[in-house]
Description:
Helices cover about 60% and strands about 5% of the residues. By secondary structure, the protein is mainly alpha-helical.
Amino acid sequence: MPNMTSIETRPKRISLRLGLAIIFGVTLWRVVMLCFNSTDLFVDEAQYWFWGQNLDFGYYSKPPMIAWVIRFFNAISGSDSTFWIRVSAPLFHLATALMLMQTTQRLIGGDEGREIAPWVGVIFVTLPAASLSAVLVSTDTIQILFVTIAIWAFLGLTKRSSVAEALILGVSLGIAFLTKYSVLFLLPGVGIAMMTIRSARIAWRDVIIAGIAGAIVVAPNLWWNLAHDAATVRHTESIAHWGGDEDGGNGGGLGKHLLGALGFVGAQFGVVGPVIFYAMLWAAWRMIRGKSDDREKLLVWLSVPVVALITLQALLAKAYANWAVTAYAAGTILAVWLLYRLTRKGLSTSLIIGAVVAVILPVLTVFAYDIKLPNGNLIMQRYVGRSSVSEEIAAIATQANTPVIVADNRDILADLFYTLKGKPYHIYARNFGGFPKSYYEQNFSLPADTTGDVLYVATGSFDCTAGKSELIKSWSPDFGNMKGKTLYAYRLQPSCLTPKS
């Protein structure tokens, strides 16, 4: 390895003006390309939009912040087009990049902080994860901003006690919690840092103020969960498989669990790019070997334990690659600061990789129906074809003279509610009985007192033993996310869909 202090390996300085130009330029590119984005709303995006039409303090699978944000942008624009549903994403990333620059300056300080801060902002805004989540609205884009604000406030509190910054810390963590519960993975690392690093400790008064402020912010969502049979918590438990594997057991073999953990760790090289994630791991190794100062140690404790905890979750049950997003506020500062002192090539390579993804990914969304893989499938196959299925279902319902549409699939239901909004159809989820399997089954199940025939869209053949049913049509979409699957549309009596006791 090159000498850490070698002047020859130090990267060229990015001026504040150039850094801001790149950050705003990337954001402008993303916003402009969103105007021409030809993909359908992904299932989660359509669901978040629908939540925003039904404002609440909580929802089946997530806290409420994403719904509130989408509703806000729809309200100020007077539109619920895909552009206005998604445009908050690049704007949140812009705000996070700027906030990370301020946080970097607050942590490092002096000329070194001023030199590194623009690099941090530029690297963050071009991370592969930022490029992907800037074309698809998600909880991650909101959460990482408020995690960054919380870290900024925390760093200030380590230098001096402040009621204002304690309030900012508590409220920011509370909003991050209202966005996604994974913010809780930050807390063990914060606790260890405060116990082991004297300069990372804050006054007990500030801890109490932050705790009270955070509790006030999250209280409505906790109350909502208590009033709704802990729906969000139970859903999180089910997707994490805390009770065992999907088949209800705890088996699968050591090999399967090891592959799950390795797969999660491997995915992180794609989430933030291979250079940045390697630098984070190397920083952790430096800390273990006693080569880090207190500031670097603090960044390690604010990032790497999150990845470690979710890797453990992946080893024991299941974890998704984006669950570690809270690690990459402090993690980006940590990696860039380390690379800045290590090698010009590392930072420039990371920036090149990120810039290529930042340019290409929006282009793929514009030409979503044109760019194909060698096997003939569209590269963006998961993100197209959804509205076409909904329009086909609407045409079948009109033909069968059955304005009541019932479906058993969350993907189909999500797009039906969005694509058919304002049209003369009544859309419901099939009620299977027991704990609901989706937000739609929880709140929009077919009413028990429904009379008259309904159109039932199923993802498998269906036999009715409690009434009359007629198969109107079965078809297999020739493109998009449902390609290769067979859908069935039945006209039947509501009694056919009565939950089994």
